[in-house]
Amino acid sequence: MKHKILITFLLPLMTLLCGCIPSFRMNGTIINYDIYNTIDIGEFPIRAALVYPPLQQTFENELLNYVSRQTRLNEIDGPADIELTGEITGYSLSPQAVGTDAYATETRLTITVRVKYVDNKNPSNNIDQTFSAYRQFSSSLMLTDVQDDLCNQISQELVNLIFNATLGNW
Length: 170
Known about the structure:
- The chain has 170 residues and is of the alpha/beta class.
- Helices cover 34% and strands 27% of the residues.
- It has a five-stranded mixed sheet, with helices on one face.
- The protein is elongated, with a radius of gyration of 24 Å.
């Protein structure tokens, strides 16, 4: 009797569960590749008061690599279905934690990027927005010793924020 009940209820349940296989995209994009084929990622010049020259190349490379890994869009120069341009508008240091001697024990490096996202197929998706990210480091360290690593980390975070607000369409 138990065997018949088990087969009566378990077999249809297993068939139902096996027949419904959900499909998920882990990168979060919802790009319709029948409509969107190309993207033009422009330069992001540094317009900040404090300038660290390698930052521009670091940020641009991270953005290009991330978009190519997460989408099937072809990156071209010139008119494209999607255009992504902008500028690095901020690169600043600020003291954070103050020790007993009234000196800062930590310093924050903040990078700000203004992004202009133009969707030539659907202008209602256009964005002109500023993104900011930061990392803190011990004030006992020289900025020159940690600058490259911090810029890489911050660039990765900024690219993730930008991607989610534009191509990720969260």
